[in-house]
Amino acid sequence: MKWVLIKKIIELIGITDDAIRAKMARGIWLQGVHWKKAPDNRIYFNYEAIQKWIESN
């Protein structure tokens, strides 16, 4: 499992939609690394990269 939708990330790491969007807006989670916008404009999250970010702190 690499790229997942926000609902799955919320389930997997246990933070809120607002917290996720704040990390995106502040540049804590980087576009192209932690998240990306697909051609259909849906946002996907790289679960593996987010796990590495969690483990680095």
What would you note in describing this structure?
The protein is an alpha+beta fold and 57 residues long. The protein has one domain (3-56): Multidrug-efflux Transporter Regulator, Chain: A, Domain 2. It is built from three helices and three strands. It has helices at residues 6-13, 17-25, 47-56, and strands at 3-5, 35-37, 43-46. Strands 1-3-2 form a three-stranded antiparallel sheet. Strand 2 (35-37) and strand 3 (43-46) form a beta hairpin. The longest helix has 10 residues, at 47-56. The chain starts with a strand and ends with a helix. The model has no long low-confidence stretch (mean pLDDT 96).
Short description:
By secondary structure, this protein is of the alpha+beta class. It has helices at 6-13, 17-25, 47-56; strands at 3-5, 35-37, 43-46.
What is this structure's SSE topology?
Layout: E1 3-5, H1 6-13, H2 17-25, E2 35-37, E3 43-46, H3 47-56
Antiparallel strand pairs: 1-3, 2-3
Keywords:
Multidrug-efflux Transporter Regulator, Chain: A, Domain 2; 18% strand; 3 strands; single chain; 57 residues; alpha+beta; 3-stranded antiparallel β-sheet
Number of strands: 3
The H-and-E topology, N to C, reads as: EHHEEH
What integer value in Å does the Rg equal?
10 Å
Termini Cα gap: 22 Å
The CATH class, by name, is Mainly Alpha
Tell me roughly what share of residues is in helical segments: 40-55%
**Structural class designation:** alpha+beta
CATH superfamily: Putative excisionased domain DUF1233
Return the CATH topology. Multidrug-efflux Transporter Regulator, Chain: A, Domain 2
> How many helical elements?
3
Which residue ranges are poorly predicted, with pLDDT under 50 across at least 5 consecutive positions? none
Name the strands of the widest sheet in spatial order.
Answer: 1-3-2
Strand percentage lies at 15-25%
Overall geometry:
globular
Mean pLDDT across all residues, rounded?
A: 96
The biggest beta sheet is recorded as: 3 strands, antiparallel
Tally of structural domains: 1
CATH architecture heading: Orthogonal Bundle
